[in-house]
Amino acid sequence: MAPLDIHIPTPTIVAMISVIAVLLGFTAVVSILLMRKYEMNLSSIILGFLMYVVFDTILLSLFDSFLLSETSLALKDLIYSTAWSYTLYFAFINALFYTAGFNVVLRVAMNSDTGVGSGIAVGIGTGISYVVLGVVIPLINNVTAALEINKIGASEFLAKAEESNRQTVIDAIEALRNSSASDFLLSGYEKLMMFVILLSAATILYLAVTRRSPFRNLYVVLGMMILIFAPPALFTFGTITNPLLLQALMTVGAACFVIVAVRHVLKYGSNPLRH
Question: What is this structure's pTM?
Fold first, then answer.
């Protein structure tokens, strides 16, 4: 059981609130600027939002749970046996689901094509969904829990939890206690880079799916996504121990995606749609 005299430091709470504000602000500013520059449909943004919900939070989670379930202990042991086997699995599966999800959704977005703006709109929707559902809402829950723990104490907070959910609450308290302000700030920066990556990936893929650029760029994006997901996997496994190195690698990855996306928009963006 978690210690009952836990106090979540104020800098940690401030860091979580700061990450929420920065992520929402950055997402809003970038989205508004792109909406003003390119013609977009709201339907494409919604499609992008649903892409993350369906292919990440539902399908990817179900696949991961099934593959690593108690019925597949041998496979699970193999995946977790080395850093490289775990990284290969994590990076490839995540890259595959995101690339496949984009491929499906972007083909639907073709029906209301407005040029490269349709691809950017899908990327905006996916990025917003990722930021809000995957980062902001969990952080709001963390802030709420931290404030309540500091107000009534961890023992009282734990007592309010249902018996079936108590271990989950204990784990959440332990995670909050063991996380510093810098942990949340660095993690927030990583999520910001992922927003940029998802936006860029959708743009590159839309040009390929609509045959404005060579279709082989779909496989280029798949390869780039594998490389993007590799550093977080190595960090989770403990091979990369310096969080600053992780963020440096994510920054390089995001910069590469932006450069490729901008070059493709300039080179292929004015080409006609080809089914």
Answer: 0.92
